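Changelog-adjacent note: as of this version, every example in the card shows the full chain rather than a window. The one below runs 319 residues end to end.
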Amino acid sequence: MSSYQFPPIGSSADVPVCLYETNGRLIYGNEKELHEMEGNALLGVFPKIEDRLLNRLQQSLPRDNIRETFVDNQQSRFQQTLNSWATKGIDSLVDSVKNAMSGTIPYSDWLLSAGQIFNKAQIDIANVFAKSEESLYDSIMQTSSTLNWLTNWARCIAIHNSGHRIAVCQNNDCIRIFCCGSNRLPITLKHQYQQNVTDMAWKPFDRMVLAVACTHAVLIWKLDKQNWNIRPSVNCADVIEMSSLAPITQCFWDSLFDQALFVVSTSSSCLQVLDTSNGESELVGSWAGGRIRHVWISPNGGKIAVAYDGNIIRYEDSV
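Full-length structure tokens:
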């Protein structure tokens, strides 16, 4: 897997690129050295992943726009209003009612005024949430292992322990799964709750389960090995709402109990342990002290290192 612009460093004309990783260190070189390395026959089974390739995979027209083009023109005004309410929210409903009733019935001026008041209140609320989102972004960028997490073309990468599958999350929260040694198109994972992806983790001993950490939720994608579509249905994902722990910045599976998923949040000093078999969860760790910034787990899963605020690192047995 080539890593153009991951991460971009320096400002000279000959920008260094990442060649490979060894023992936790990124080895850099120039683009010529990268192409020479790619010519090695041993690397022939690995996909070449670039931001240009991911951009070409983007759909030119969202499904919602396609549906509206062919469906809305066949609906009555009342049906269009109900459809706008169901798909776009209460603000779209108010606009539809205003447009339909303006100047045609008594009290239309009152409806217009009420709609303007509602829109102003909505803008004020949206501004409050925007400031809250900015705070979440700042918290994520301070702890993310990805340089410039908000704008980098690759937000996070997860490589299956078998080495046969690579999951790459773009900065639009679209996840592409590449299969090594195959020319097939990458699989695309997209979900309405898959927003602001911060981390991904393949489930051990299972080739088809991927955990995705987002700021307000955790998604467990369970893909069907017998029917592996390029665009799996959203029904393949279990959504675990975790807004109380936002922002969620990391997730990793327990190496012993394969149903346990550990979730890390910068707003907590404890780890959240999810039992993915029944949806139950439990907080473990210290209630006192600084908030968790990052967690590292040993290759055998027996030890973990937890970094807290205040430059404190605790090294202890796996919980």
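Structural remarks: The two ends are 34 Å apart (CA to CA).
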